Write the structure tokens for this entry.
Amino acid sequence: MKRALGRSFGAPLAMLVAAPLAAATTQYHVISGFTKLAEGDPVSTVLTSDGAVQLGPALDRWAATGTAQVLALVEDGAGGVFVGTGEPGRVLRIGRDGKVATVYEATEPLVTALARDATGALFAATSPDGKIFKIDPTRRRAAVFSEPKAKYVWGLAFDGEALYAVTGVEGAVWRIDRGGKATAVKGVREKNLRCIAVGGSGAARRVAIGGGSKGIVYTIAAGGATRAVFDTTLEEISALAIDGSGHIYAAAVSASEKSGSDDSDGVELVADSGGDRESKAREVKSSEVYRISPTGDVKLLFKSKKDGAYALALVPGALYVATGGRGRLYRVELSDRFSVSLLAKADSTALTGLVAAGPALVVAGSTPGALYRLGAGNRSQGVYLSAPLDAKRAVRPGALRAVTRTPAGTAIEFALRQGNTETVDATWGPFEKIDPGAAPRQALAARYSQVRATLRGTASATPQLRALELAYRGSNRAPQLKKIQILAPGVRVEAMPDDEPKGKTFSVSASAFDDFKFVPGQSVLPTEPRPRVRQTFEQGWQAAAWDGEDDDGDRLSYRVLLTSLDTGAARELARDLDRPFIGFESKRLPDGRYQLTVQVHDGLDNALVDRLDAELQSEPFVIDHTPPQIAGLRAQTDGARLRIQFEGTDLSPLRGAWCSAGGEGWAEIDAVDGLVDQPRERFSSAIELAPALGRPLVVRCTVEDLAGNRGLAEVQVR
């Protein structure tokens, strides 16, 4: 390849300079607002929609089922409930007093649905044989009532005299008369139908069906016509409820990341994307609850990326949502705001059933199978645990600050524990009491911290916790230097003065001010603007750039030394340099081999005793202002060609050689060894002569080194 006689420059220096980070020696874990507080564990407290932890009703264990799964739940009309279980399949009755009795032992492993008619008769569906039994609880007898052509019967509901059943695998809706004859309802086409609800009165009477494979909500009109009223785009409608005005409440879950609604109203509960620290009954990636009006308007009431909505229950003025994953019970206020509160947490991993039994709300749980009742009054004491707070490395905790309200007779006490595993386990230290505004007395360095708040109230008053802020600081980490880059000789760089602060114009939106939000220990003001550099070319200048990093975000200060590798003499080029590059006049230095040493420290943001340093040396480089020497230049004609030979020498490696005959254009001359890369090279080549050139003929040759110096020689050919 022929190379042009000239020079090429490297990438602009600005691309080599990273923007410094703002120093942050003391940092803060901040927990405030519904979403952040909901990442923690309410244990025995309530989290209100406006982001306050307070005392609330107790969710007390009422009875144990002795099984892992509770699949169906219906009230018994006397303050108790009937329960359908899985593996083994049983129908249990839990009386008002909490006593458990088995009223039917199924031959199939699952009792998947229960329903009671207007007379109080109990019907149970079993799977995977798809049978419906009529049960006499008093005599503990059961007889086959109907056998729909389906493997699984997932839901049962009465509409007057007719019993509706929704089935899986085949995906069908069956209308069963009093004699047990089943007739298929046409118009619903899904492989799996998951749930059914009947509600409303008069003209608002509605039968709603939830799809289990496409996530569509259907209704059946009085004449038997079926229509889809809402497509959630999530995978499964997991629960339905209908109020007296005909509004349908639908819970949807999905195992994928897609979300079924762009409606920004309602309270969104979006937990972190990390792994759940508790075992899950089912993996849920999206969960939503909607209200569908009789006219078809849809309102998003609840949304979560961690809690799967598995059961719904309506009470005057509120909708309860039972969830799986973390065993949480939510309450949605059915007012204009539709505010959501995290009401309680159960011992069971998944809450799979809700029903009002007398004055109490009964909650069914799975893994383990248990029944809970929601109390009427507030607890006198409750506990809230923050999520494990990750500092990403071992740190020492500092002062704890809390935003609280403590009416007369109420109090909140705080404690802190630490560990080095993501999951809280026996390797963590015990809780130690910590007073707000003070640091823990004997805290050791650890990566994770967890705050416990114990709330104590009275019959008429509850304290409130609205925010937590825990300061922390790690041991200082040494700065790092990487890759000193020596730029091409002649590249001159200079730091430019910083511009005056400029305003910013932007459109207002929900996230428009994210860059300016208050974070304790941080500033939105740019304390370290990105360096601005002017890059030019000037013979006799040399420049270098390097990467300086500090994991703590500390400001860095550099010292640069230049050492002659020929004499050992060293000189300081710069001290207290705040930018990772330097330019200097190399023409004032003797030709020779040199090496740069860059030293860095983080003392600008650390006390002298905590200051740490680092040092890095560059690869050797040559400063060379002497032109290459050309020796033994010979040229002779060979017909129409001119043969040229010579030797070039220099301190620096040579870059190339070119010759011109009689003032014609320059031609590149090849090195004898085929590669120009040494300070001493022999050149030999033949170039074509122009026919018009006469004799004598002057041949001029030039050699250029990597420093950009050129030597020139000429010879006359007769």
Remarks:
- Residues 239 and 609 are 63 Å apart (CA to CA).
- The mean pLDDT is 87.
